[in-house]
Amino acid sequence: MKELIVISGKGGTGKTSIVAALASLARSAVIADCDVDAANLHLILEPRIERQEPFWGGSKAVIAAERCTGCGQCTDLCRFDAIAGDGPDPGRAARVFRIDPLACEGCGVCVDHCPQNAITLTPTAGGQWFVSRTRCGPMVHARLGVAADNSGKLVTHLRRTARRLAVERRRDLILCDGAPGIGCPVIASLTASSLALAVVEPTVSGLHDFVRVAELTQRLDILGMLTVNKADLNPDLTGRLEQAARQFGFAVAGRVPYDSAVTRAQVARRTIVELADGPAARAIRALWAEVQTRLQACKDVVDPPVHLAS
Amino acid sequence: MRIAVASGKGGTGKTTIAVNLAHLAAKRGRPVVYADCDVEEPNGHLFLRPTIVHQRSIDRLVPTIALDRCTRCGLCSVACRYGAIACVGQTVLVFPELCHACGGCRLACPEQAICEAPRSIGCVRHGWSGCLRFLDGVLNVGEMMSPPAIQAVKNALPPVSSLAILDCPPGASCPVIESVRGADFVLLVTEPTPFGLSDLALAVEMTRALRLPFGVVVNRADRGDREVWRYCEREGIDIVAEIPDDRAVAEACSQGDLAAEKIPGMAERLCALLDAVESRATAEKRGVA
């Protein structure tokens, strides 16, 4: 079983459009939307949800007001400014303490050191995850709760679910849509995958951000491949990108030209290869052939990915 | 006044708008600071080309263990909720990238064998782009947690008297929340496509959860469909500006040029946007006061 993860560094470079197109070309893949922060793949693949489960994100501290004596030990120890006194309380406590759930990182220091044992850590609902059926194959995806954290943990969970699904349904490829950036969700989606395909636009920002994510890919010892999207926008930078990619040991795949059909396909909720056979669609078909060849040389994934906390 | 430029979806033009607004405000003689909070992929410097006058390391505390005092009791790893410290046989392993610097292990150690030492996760750079004050944060590659680095950028902001334009990371979770918190106004940049709309809706939910005043800029407004306008009307959301799709702008941005300088008519359009945002932010402030 191989696992392909599509990354970009900079956001909005066409990752999701390309993943959707590859999914419709692959036919036999399990699809995973690991861009849990801003998931979009479902808008094109229109999944029918078969299974829906809550995602338990990070734990947050909760103070049992009736046991709190207002000693203030918790506020003194909290490094996240997550505990504040609520002013004088006419009851037995001089002050009532309250947790700010947005600031609380669930470290448990207040829980462990409250002299009254008045604080507990409670898992919080961090969103939902789904197993669905799409016209291009089974799909795992998620909706992260509003202002929720632990997106890395959710990504790891989705990848595990996708691997189980691939075994069950005898699929030999997992196709993951990744997140922009180089932080927690990206590390969680890259770790121990077979191949990272970077979709990058030929801009100074695209180049700058690609170099950072390529360095990360190299450090995590993942094979890389680059395709330049909208390559004709700036041929000079396209060349520089491909040169940089080679320096990081990335294979350089074919370029995808600018094609207004890509936006039209998105609006029509179709993948570009389903909608048209224009320049972008043709380039992506060629890219898929190259990706398949490259995947044969990549390592299989077997073990579940290492758990990464947020 | 603090204005955060955010988006939900990546690549909608946050940085383009943030750098141009900051540049134009400085050109009008305003004391203004541009702060790049997208510490994972900071790009503002590519457009503003600042002279960096100094940079400061962003440090986080991580535990160090005095093995001569450590009895391998393992209480530190029990206390750590992040799996960042593990007692394995005769050694104690610390995984700094997983550490949240809560200090729980130090408090839990009965032998006082743990102390905390700073470890650099990136840097904050200070500089000038002409009269524009420039700030950005750069997270080291391999670091997982960007919020502490974003906090460091925000802590480096000058006092509230001047205008600050914060360029935020994409998404709608912890890094964005850290960036927009405390802003007087959030400008959400979107594009009129299904992806743009879906991510805008997430960003709107987040901004509302934080109770921050916000408005929308529709970039590349003549592409895609009309759903973003329908959504904004339904939700009573203020569209502050629309910017048409223009290949010349895309080409200028691809080379790191400021659209306000290169594209005729762009400076006027963006100055109007700046005025609109500032008057809304001022009105909100008055409303709150």
Description of the molecule:
The complex is a heterodimer of chains A (310) and B (289). By secondary structure, chain A is of the alpha/beta class. Chain A has helices at residues 15-26, 41-45, 73-77, 109-113, 151-168, 184-190, 204-219, 235-247, 261-267, 272-275, 279-296, and strands at residues 2-7, 29-33, 48-63, 83-88, 95-99, 119-134, 137-144, 173-177, 195-200, 223-228, 251-252. In chain A, strands 3-6-7-2-8-1-9-10-11 form a nine-stranded mixed sheet, sandwiched between helices. Chain A has a two-stranded antiparallel sheet with strand order 4-5. In chain A, helix 7 runs parallel beside helix 8 (235-247). The two termini of chain A are 27 Å apart. Residues 306-310 of chain A have low confidence and may be disordered. Chain B is an alpha/beta fold. In chain B, the strands form two sheets. Chain B has a nine-stranded mixed sheet with strand order 3-6-7-2-8-1-9-10-11, sandwiched between helices. The longest helix of chain B is centred in the last third of the chain and has 23 residues, at 266-288. The mean pLDDT of chain B is 95. The chains are: A alpha/beta (310), B alpha/beta (289).
Quick overview of this protein structure:
With 310 residues, chain A is α/β, with parallel strands linked by helices.
Oligomer: heterodimer
Main β sheet profile of chain B: 9 strands, mixed
Strand coverage percent of chain B: 25-35%
Strand content of chain A: 25-35%
Give the terminus-to-terminus CA distance of chain A.
27 Å
Q: Give average pLDDT of chain B, whole number.
A: 95
Let me know the average pLDDT of chain A: 92
Largest sheet of chain A: 9 strands, mixed
From the spread of the alpha carbons, the general shape of chain A counts as elongated
The spatial strand order of the largest sheet of chain B comes to 3-6-7-2-8-1-9-10-11
Structural class designation of chain B: alpha/beta
Q: Give the distance, in angstroms, between the N- and C-terminal Cα atoms of chain B.
A: 14 Å
Question: How many strands of chain A?
Answer: 11
Biggest interface, chains and residue tallies: A-B, 63 and 57 residues
